[in-house]
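Work Package 4 report. The design task specified in the project plan requires that, given a folded chain encoded as C-alpha cells, an amino acid be chosen for each position. We show below one input record used in the internal validation round.
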C-alpha cells in the first residue's frame, strides 16, 4: 500500500484530526483535550461518585470477524527491537498478581454514551503513555474523529480509581488507519496528563505521572512468530452462543503462541493471532506481553487486541487478533514517547 508522509503536530488541541504536510514519518496525530478541557473531562468521569465510570458499557465496534486466512508468516521490515519495561517508583509488595499497568480506557462514542476498552501503561521518556487499539481512540463511525472525553483508569474496579484517572492529551496513530481504514495499523499511543483523584471536598488533586504510579510495560517489534504471549484485558461481551463467561469488572488473562493471519473484512494482511477465549466487547486494546515475568508483572508489549473470531464454528470465540508490531509501529511509538503532557491542575 502506498504510504503518504506527514509530520508531527504536537501541541495542537481540538476535536479534529491533524495531518500537516511534511517529510518523514507515517505518523498521524490527534489532539484530545487541552488543559481547561481536561479539567472538565476529569469532572465528567469522577463526578457523582464516578457514576459515568460505573454506567459505561464495553465498546462493541468491530469486535468480531468471520473469515480468517492462515498465513505462513509476516515479513519484518527492520531489525528486531525492544524497549525495556520499568517498575513503578514505589516497587514495594504488589497488591495483585496481575499487571498494575492494565486498566480501562473510557470515552464517549458516536452515540454520546460512555464506553470503555482496555489499555496499558507503557514506558516512555515522560512516563505518560498508554497503548490501546486505534479504534478505541478514533471514532470510525464518524469519519475517524476523536472519541470524546478520553481517559485511562489503571486497576479500575466498580467505579474506583485506585491509581488515579488520567485524561488523554493527544494520540499518535499510523497514517494508514484513519486514511485507508487499514486495520494492519489499528494501534494507538496516547499521552496522558498527570493523574487526578477527588479530594474529600470533591476538588481534584494531583496524583502524579502514570508510569511512576503503575510502572510501564516495555515494547517489542519485528519479533518472530510462534512466540508465547500473555494476554491481559477486561472481556465482557457474549460468545456467539449467548453465554457470558466474563463480567468486565476484573482483569482476565490467557496465554498462547502467536501465528500469522489475514482478515479480508478488515483489509488486514499482516495480523498476528493467538488462541484466547476472550470475547470481543471489553477486550479491545488488551495487551499482549512477550517475556512476561510474573514476579515483576512486567514484559514487552507485542500486540493489542483489535478483534476476535470463532475459528472452529462451535459458537465460542477462540482467537484474538493484533496488528503485527513492526518497525513502523516503533516509529509511531518513538514519536509519542517524546511528548510531554504535565498536570491539569495549575498552581494557585
Amino acid at each position: 500500500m502506498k504510504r503518504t508522509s506527514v509530520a508531527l503536530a504536537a501541541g495542537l488541541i481540538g476535536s479534529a484530526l491533524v495531518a500537516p504536510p511534511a517529510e518523514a514519518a507515517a505518523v498521524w496525530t490527534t489532539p484530545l483535550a487541552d488543559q481547561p478541557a481536561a479539567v472538565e473531562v476529569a469532572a465528567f468521569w469522577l463526578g457523582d461518585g464516578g457514576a459515568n465510570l460505573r454506567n459505561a458499557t464495553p465498546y462493541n465496534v468491530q469486535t468480531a470477524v468471520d473469515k480468517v486466512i492462515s498465513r505462513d508468516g509476516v515479513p519484518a521490515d527492520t531489525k528486531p527491537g525492544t524497549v525495556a519495561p520499568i517498575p513503578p517508583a514505589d516497587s514495594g509488595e504488589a497488591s495483585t498478581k496481575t499487571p498494575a499497568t492494565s486498566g480501562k480506557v473510557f470515552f464517549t462514542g458516536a452515540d454520546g454514551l460512555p464506553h470503555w476498552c482496555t489499555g496499558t501503561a507503557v514506558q516512555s521518556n515522560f512516563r505518560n503513555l498508554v497503548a490501546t487499539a486505534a479504534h478505541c481512540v478514533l471514532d470510525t463511525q464518524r469519519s475517524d474523529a476523536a472519541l470524546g472525553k478520553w481517559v485511562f483508569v489503571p486497576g479500575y474496579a466498580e467505579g474506583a480509581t485506585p491509581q488515579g484517572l488520567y485524561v488523554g492529551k493527544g494520540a499518535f496513530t499510523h497514517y494508514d488507519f484513519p486514511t485507508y481504514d487499514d486495520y494492519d495499523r489499528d494501534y494507538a499511543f496516547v499521552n496522558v496528563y498527570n493523574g487526578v483523584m477527588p479530594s474529600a471536598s470533591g476538588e481534584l488533586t494531583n496524583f502524579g505521572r502514570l508510569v511512576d504510579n503503575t510502572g510501564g510495560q516495555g515494547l517489542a517489534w519485528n519479533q518472530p512468530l510462534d512466540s508465547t504471549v500473555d494476554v491481559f484485558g477486561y472481556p465482557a461481551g457474549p460468545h456467539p452462543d449467548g453465554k457470558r463467561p466474563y463480567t468486565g469488572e476484573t482483569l482476565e488473562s490467557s496465554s498462547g503462541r502467536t501465528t500469522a493471519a489475514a482478515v479480508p473484512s478488515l483489509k488486514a494482511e499482516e495480523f498476528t493471532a493467538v488462541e484466547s477465549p476472550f470475547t470481543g466487547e471489553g477486550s479491545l486494546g488488551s495487551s499482549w506481553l512477550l517475556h512476561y515475568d510474573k514476579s515483576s508483572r512486567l514484559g514487552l508489549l507485542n500486540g493489542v487486541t483489535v478483534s476476535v473470531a470463532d475459528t472452529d464454528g462451535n459458537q465460542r470465540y477462540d482467537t484474538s487478533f493484533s496488528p503485527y508490531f513492526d518497525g513502523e509501529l516503533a516509529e509511531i511509538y518513538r514519536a509519542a514517547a517524546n511528548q510531554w503532557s504535565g498536570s491539569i491542575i495549575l498552581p494557585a
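The two ends are 51 Å apart (CA to CA). Validation will be extended to a larger panel in the next phase.
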